[in-house]
Amino acid sequence: MTRRLLLLLVPIVGAILAEGAAASGPGPLAAGASARIEISFAPTAGLPEGFTPAMLDAFKFHGEMDFAAHRGQLSFGSGRWDTIYDGNTTYSKMGLERLIPDAKPWVRFDGASDGADPFDIQAQALGLGPAQLLPWLRGGSTELHEAGSEIVSGTSTTRYEGTLDLEKVVESAPAADREELRWVLDTMRKEEGTPATVPYTVWVDARGLTHRLRFVEGPMPFGMAVTVEFSEFGLPIVLDLPPAADVMSPEEFMQQMMAYTDAHPSQGCNSDGTPTVTETTTDQGDGGSVTICLRSSTEGGK
Fold it and tell me: Does pTM top 0.85 for this prediction?
């Protein structure tokens, strides 16, 4: 069960660290153009034996984003991984300097993303932001209804419960994209066991701004309950961009990473190549480091 949970979490973090794919490009927004974000995960069946809260906390992330300008920053876990969005440029801090002392800590990706994964409700939440999330959910849901009211962070909200239907996502896509999306969805369901529907609960205030979104990622009963929190709407976004001396290209990052895995062929990998997790404790007590297996082409992996 531990491995099942890891395989659900690793793609979630990896998608965000890779070229800013978890957030779409700039788009028009009215109220709530910027907000603070916090995303946390909890196993639906409880923590399995050997899986500690510190390991799970390594996948939590928080930050702030201006969704109109696509500018903001997300920090993962204890801050070892970070991503900065500056328009069409993304800076990702992946921790390579902890493996290779002379490595630069940041990787720069240029060019706008093609948009968030249309089947990934979390990616859509990060890409659309609090003002546009509910309309997107309405468009892709077969069922959505009011389920009461609730105070969230001091604000009165309406709670909605719904079911996102991935088949409807395909049907409502532009005609030119439907064939490819159909193939992607069929592959996800066949190879990953992705369910065709995603139940969710969303809390929205009188202005139409989403304060909280909760859903389950992955097949039951071993999925992860994901909670997305938006707060401090309209806050100013001030970026602390890394200096050029601390930044490398994606090609340089891959070259150094592959060289490292060639020199350490078994580190961070189980015998079948699946990710492993190790827990560490530092003087600051921020344990919970994550090791993700990366096999090089010389080992016959991908």
Answer: no
